Amino acid sequence: MTRTLIKGGQILSMDDTIGRLTGDVLIEDDRIVQVAPAIDAPAAHVIDATGAVVMPGFVNAHMHTWQGAIRAIAADWPSGGYFRQVHAGISPHYTPDDTRIGTLVGALAQIEAGTTTLFDWCHNNATPAHTDAAIDALEAAGLRAVFGHGTVKPKPKPGEPHFSTIPHPVGEIDRLRKGRLSQDDALVTLAACILGPDYSGIEVCRHDFQMARDYGLLSSAHIWGLNRLVPDGYLTIAREGLLGPDHNIVHANYIDDEELKVILDCGATVTSTPPVELGPHPVEPLVSRILRMGGRPSIGPDVEVDVTGGMLDTMRASLLGARLYNTAHADKQLAEEDVAAREVAVPTARVTEPPVPTIEALKWATIDNARALRLDDRIGSLTPGKQADLIVIRRDSLAMMGTVDPAQSVVHFAQNADIDTVMIAGQIRKSGGRVLDVDMGKLAREQAASAERLFAAFPIEI
Fold first, then answer.
1. Alpha-carbon torsion, ordered 421, 424, 427, 433, to 10 deg
2. Which of 11, 75, 248, 435 has its CA 20 to 30 A from that of 198?
3. CATH code of residue 241
4. What is the domain range of residue 421?
5. Rounded to an integer, what distance in angstroms lies between the CA atom of residue 419 and that of residue 310?
6. CA atoms within 13 A on the CB side of 257
7. pLDDT digits (tens, 9 = 90+) for 345-385
8. Residue 77 lies in a domain
9. Strands (DSSP E) along 273-346, which ranges?
10. Same structural domain for residues 305 and 392?
């Protein structure tokens, strides 16, 4: 048995019973066994966390990790550019090895940024070899991951059916579910990333939702609420009993409150990606809308061709967006009340209520994201019995020096370099600020060769 004692940290447990405290965390093998002000653990390997923040590792609830080798190309594109240049343009030129390299770069970068669990929503897997290459990369990185088996969306050639009419390939789900991703307690597990009611008709929806349920899998779908192939979206799917806690919805910025309420009432989870959504979409991300409805949102970065996949930046964008829209909502209500009371023109209303608390962003990025992936019984909080997925964030850098409140220091001040230690299932993957067991020279050469080949095949207009 291997014992590790993380000693003297400012603990943000994200467990309502344990709360915050200054103290120790004891890990035996891959499990947390005790969280307390002081723990006596003879012969344990000690990590001195005095003055540092100790908390669960971040959970990234939505990212297309295959894009890890072609970052920073799309942030200035107009709406639609991503689909034209990435999905229709460069994506068809990916070989399985390009998928492996992009996923490996992206997954290792997640560890560097303090993420211990990733929902890899893989929709650039044109062949089983592409799928296997992505899984190979996740396993090689040592990250806990939910591999979301998606499908490509090519423009059909003459005589070919449109992708929206093609059910999710059961054969691939069966192969993975009965093969290398058969174990639900493994480090890498399986989900079905389906087209959903925006990108497929009702018959394909029925097939895909039922398929995922038959295999005991979480299903997830990209939803916007515009130009939908099932006009009433999730209302039909809910009426037919296909919508439940085993489904995850991503984006959904344009759906109305009635549909959102049905989704939440059925127990489905909603993941918003504010770092991307706040740019080209002139509507509110769902984080603040879900909060106002009494629900719990989850968050992710989405696409690294636009933004960094790190959860520190994802939390900041999500919290800022939630505060902006919640304050605007409250301001509008106050203004309307003022007009009704005084019968005068609308004044500039002043919101005096506190903003969305900083600790909320940490909940979204840990226990709420774990819940969205149906992993909250295993990860997302420093609860005895759960897997030892945690991070130690030092506070002695110039970026963190002088910070007082641990939650505010992490959400508003911390940088990736401050994340000193990352532990996944009891195994240390980052120590002393460095991701372990990575040949950076080899990885950089592979990434450069992949990007050079892809951009030669389809030059990108930046």
1. -20
2. 75
3. 3.20.20.140
4. 3-57+380-435
5. 12
6. 6
7. 555 556 667 789 999 999 999 999 999 999 999 999 999 99
8. yes
9. 298-299
10. no
